[in-house]
Every structure is written in structure tokens, then in C-alpha cells.
Amino acid sequence: MSNTHNSGLSQRGSLWQRLLMLPIRHLQQAVGSLGDLWRTPFTSVMTVFVLGISLALPATLHLFVKNAQHVSEQWDSSSQITLFLKLSTSEKSAKNLVNRIRLYNEVSEVHYISAEQALKEFKMLSGFGQSLEYLDKNPLPATVLVTPTQRSSKAQAANELLEKLLNEREVEQGKLDVEWLTRLEAMARLIEDIVLGVALLLCLSVVLIVGNTIRLAILNQKDAIAVMKLVGATDSFIQRPFLYAGIWYGIFGGILSCLCVALLAQYLESAITELTELYHSSFELQGLAFNEVMLLIAFAVTLGLLGSYLSVSQHIKAIEPNAD
User: Fold this and answer.
1) Mean pLDDT of the chain, nearest integer
2) Which of the listed residues 126, 143, 176 is the one where a domain comes to its end?
3) Is 221 in the same domain as 306?
4) Which of 10, 41, 141, 192 is the most buried (most CB within 10 A)?
């Protein structure tokens, strides 16, 4: 009875020891795989550079799309609908119309320009001030400038708001230039599709590059792998260092791609600043946020691990020790 109890305790103890040693073995193999990369510096550095530059291109395109969307949002928010009121509209009716428009959920701001104010501004800007004094009555209508909310600034939503405003009885005519908004949104969608297509192609190339590098490393250690299998090593034990090598490639390649994007953004920021100063405006180029940097590195690690896994799952199983 005591022997059975002791054997049960020893089994639980050995299981507990194996669980404790598992992360230690993984750490040893991870550090060992990093040492293997250090022993082949030329191959490792070239692979990291190819991986980093391949990921830097779609990341840079994403950065441009991100900044373009930021500029687009600023333009959208500044879009306005101009409503020209009927000449017969009284000042009281015009003020009532302005109050009704302010209640629209799609409207952010409403600015009213009376007919007298419009004529005064026209006299100042046109240079025909003295000639206009001979007019019997004011030919200019009262105007209402409507600024949509950010959600309603898109081309389709702004057009729907214009149709709704034209139904007001005091409104004679409305004007909204949505053609440039439609073109801008179409260009943004085209750029996003291009970024997605380029990213997919480059990600595939990263997987193939890492997989080929790991394949060459496996072939270089073919005899050592055969000996390890001969003494009883499992395929999973042999595969781990190569999988960790793919992870290291992903980490270093992801960091390099982040540095490339940051340097390129810093280089372009001065040129963009000079360009915006010519138009008396200010624009600050937005770089990659911290979560985007972490996501890029994690994505690079995933691609490196995928490439190494596809390579080791195919080539290590094919290596068998000789029967001799």
C-alpha cells in the first residue's frame, strides 16, 4: 500500500518537474536559435533587411492613407450648403427658417446673411459701389450658410440634406459642390485597395523568404538532425529552434520596418511643412501610433512564424537517419 502511495507521489512530482522545466527548455531553445542567427550574420542580416523593407512599404502607404483621411475629414467639416432665399421672404420669416434649420440633426452650424448685408459686402468686394447706388431695390437675396455635421458631410449625406432643405418654402435655390467630395472619396477608396493588394503580395513574399531561409538552415544541419532523431529526439523538439528563428526574424524585421517608416515620415515632414506654408496653412504629418507599431511588429512575427512553420513541417519530417 505504501509502495503504491510513494509511486503516485513520485509520478506527480515528476509531472510537476516536467511542467516547470518546459518554459526553461523553450527559453534555452529561443536563446540558442538567436545564437544560431548570430553565427550566420550575413544571411540573418539580409533576411531581416528584406523582411523589414518589405513590410515598410505597405506600412508607409498606410501612413499616407491615414493622413489623407485626416485631411479629408478636415475638408468635409468645412463643406457648406448655400441657400438663397426668395426675394419676397421677410426678415421675420428668414429668422424663423434659420431657427428651424438649427433643429436639424444633420446640421452643425447655421449662419444667416441678410439681403442688406449681402449688398454691402458686394459693394466692398466688387468695386461697383457707386454704380449700385442707382438701383431702385436690392437685387440680392438673403442667404443662409448651413454647415453639416461631420457624419453628414459625406457626398451622399450632404446631397440628401440639400434635398431636405430645398423643401423649405422660403428657399428659392440651394448650392452644394459635392463633385470634389465624390472624387476625393473615390480616390481614397482606390488608394486603400492598392495598399491592401500591395500588402498581400509583400506579406506572401515575406513568408516565402523566411521559409526559404529556414529551409537552407535545415539543410545545413541535415546530418545533426538525423543524429538527433537517431538518439530519440522528437520532431517537435527539433522544430522549436527553427520556429524561434522565424520569430526572431519577425521581431527584428518588424522593428526595422518601424524605423524605416519613422525616418521616411520625418524626411517628408519638412517638405510637407514647406508646401503648406506656401498656402498659408498648417499640417502636421501623423506618424505611426504606439498600438500601430506594436501591431506591425506582431504581424511581422506572425509572418516569420508562419514561414518557418511551413518550412520545418515539410523538411524536418523528410530527414530520416540512415539504417546503417
Assistant:
1) 77
2) 176
3) yes
4) 141
Where a domain ends, among 176, 200, 229?
A: 176
Q: Are 50 and 86 in the same domain?
A: no
Which of 73-82, 120-129, 203-212 has the least mean pLDDT? 120-129
44 and 190 inside one domain: yes
Residues 145, 96 share a domain: yes
pTM of the model: 0.63
**Number of folded domains that form the chain:** 2
